[in-house]
Amino acid sequence: MPRAPHRLRKTSKHELGRLVILIRTCSRRPAVPHLLYVLNFLFLLMLSGCGARRPIADRRQPPPAQPTETPAGTADTAKRSTNVPEPPSTPPAAAPSSKRNKPAIAPAPSGYTENGNASWYGVPFHGRRASNGEIYDMYKLTAAHRTLPFETMVRVTNMNNGKSTVVRITDRGPFVDNRIIDLSLAAAREVDSVGPGVVPVRVEVLSAGIDPTSGFFTVQVGAFRERANAERLRDRLNASYSPIFIQQYDSPDGMLYRVRVGKISGEDSAHQFSDQLRTREGFTPFVTRLDEGTATGGIR
């Protein structure tokens, strides 16, 4: 009997038994048909062996999609988390949608703009209570102003480079001559005023429905570390002016006692009174708002 082909897969004992029976059966028949039966059987075994070697499916996941870019307004939203919504004074006209669907900033109400110098403040005021009662965070877009109502939204433009930012008034100050607004560190960074320290700016009121010049105001004429000095000035002025307040302010550098004169209705009248005090008494006065609930005008 001819040899079986060499390249056969390994067969089981059961299959070998069947092969032996088949060969024995075929040996009783003519040689040629027997040989054909054996070859056919071996061929079927080879096919079954090849069929068992199927390729393993590729289970690799497709490469992950690239992360999407952070939306343009996300950083601003985080910094402006304490912002107060600006109610529109009139229904806005329909405008073509921008690529990022960012609402346009309403124009400043006519009649209130202010030009002067802006400074900025950070440490050691960071984490201390501001004049409106909240904790000052130098990384939020806020500012201190002597007369604008708390929560007023204003646009501040650096006149040296044209850069601008929108801030919320939360504090009182600066009580330094020839400055009109004190920016937070975050706001100063947006208009590139951190390095210079003091820059010329334009301040525009954006909040609708308010009159920045209405309300009661007072005039600060001095600030002292010793309460006795503040009381002496108060007693001297009592003969000519009334009322006179001594406001106690816990500054980062220690306690200060501020002497403030008058309770004047309207900012224009307060500035006129301030000019009189400058001329008659030789003071460097500051007009500041008398905020509701604090007859002495806040804590900063």
Descriptive account of the structure:
The protein is of the alpha+beta class. Among the domains are: 13-47, no CATH class; 107-205, Barwin-like endoglucanases, CATH 2.40.40.10; 216-289, Alpha-Beta Plaits (2-Layer Sandwich), CATH 3.30.70.1070. Helix content is 25%, strand content 24%. The protein is built from 6 helices and 10 strands; from the N terminus they run αααβββββαββαββαβ. The chain has helices at residues 13-27, 31-51, 74-79, 185-190, 227-237, 267-281; strands at residues 113-121, 142-145, 153-158, 164-171, 181-184, 199-205, 216-224, 244-251, 254-265, 286-289. Helix 1 (13-27) packs antiparallel against helix 2 (31-51). The longest helix has 21 residues, at 31-51. It starts with 12 loop residues before the first helix and ends in an 11-residue tail after the last strand.
Outline the secondary-structure elements.
Layout: H1 13-27, H2 31-51, H3 74-79, E1 113-121, E2 142-145, E3 153-158, E4 164-171, E5 181-184, H4 185-190, E6 199-205, E7 216-224, H5 227-237, E8 244-251, E9 254-265, H6 267-281, E10 286-289
Parallel strand pairs: 1-5, 2-4
Antiparallel strand pairs: 1-6, 2-5, 3-4, 3-6, 7-9, 7-10, 8-9
Helix pairs in contact: 1-2
Tags for this entry?
single chain; 300 residues; alpha+beta; Barwin-like endoglucanases; Alpha-Beta Plaits; six-stranded mixed β-barrel; four-stranded antiparallel sheet; 6 helices; 10 strands; 24% strand; elongated
